[in-house]
Amino acid sequence: MFPKNGKAVPQLRFKGFTDTWEQRKLSDLCSMNARIGWQNLRTSEFLNEGDYYLITGTDFQGGRVNLETCHYIDKDRFDQDQKIQVQSGNILITKDGTLGKVAYVDKLGKPATLNAGVFNVRATNEKADSLYLFHYLKAPFLMKYAQENSTGGTIKHLNQNILVDFPVSIPDLDEQIKIGLLLEQIDNLVTLHQRKYEKLQNIKKALLQKMFV
After folding, report:
1. pLDDT value for 112
2. What is the pTM of this model?
């Protein structure tokens, strides 16, 4: 559903869309911010409860943020930098540790900010749909681009200077919305079947224990 290299349109499209896609730099479509070094947190500042979520890359699960695993932070630290305060519709990308993991933010319930090692990506261009961008960034394109543009061919950190120039193939807004919603529905279906599979596996395990123990 995305154009191949050198192509202006994808092979598979929704009916009624014929316009040529554009290629834009990610920095033309979004702002990108992360926790600055001097703002880094000590583990003693992590709270087990509170009013302000602290999101870390290890809280990413299935393309979303698992709020149940998040720590919390006090208000002073939350207020320290508005650029890394997280809102619904933002896209988060890990830049250290497991590189290039992507999560889409929705249904926060409480204010949230980021721990070190994560980019906060916000769509700032009115012609860009955040859900479409999330699925584009979750596809293999980003890490392939980062690998090709890293010094020595080994990525230790996903640097912002790589991210800002990352090329994004983008159709008009209506087509983006349709693509984003379709891919989201497929992800939801996969998650549903994964949960059913895990439930059946647990039932099988329990039955085997009763039969042979």
Report:
1. 97
2. 0.84
User: Is residue 85 very low, low, confident or very high in pLDDT (cuts 50, 70, 90)?
Assistant: very high
Q: Which domain holds residue 42?
A: 25-170
Q: What is the dihedral of CA 9, 14, 19, 20, to 10 degrees?
A: -10
The phi, psi pair for 109, rounded to 5°, reads: 85, -30
* Residues, the chain: 213
Alpha carbon distance 59, 66 (integer Å) = 5
For residue 35, being part of any structural domain is answered with yes
Q: What CATH number is associated with residue 122?
A: 3.90.220.20
With beta carbons less than 8 A apart as the criterion, state whether 118 and 160 touch.
Answer: no
- Name beta bridge partners: 112: 53, 86
Mean pLDDT, residues 199-212: 82
Number of domains within the chain: 1
In a domain, 205, yes or no: no
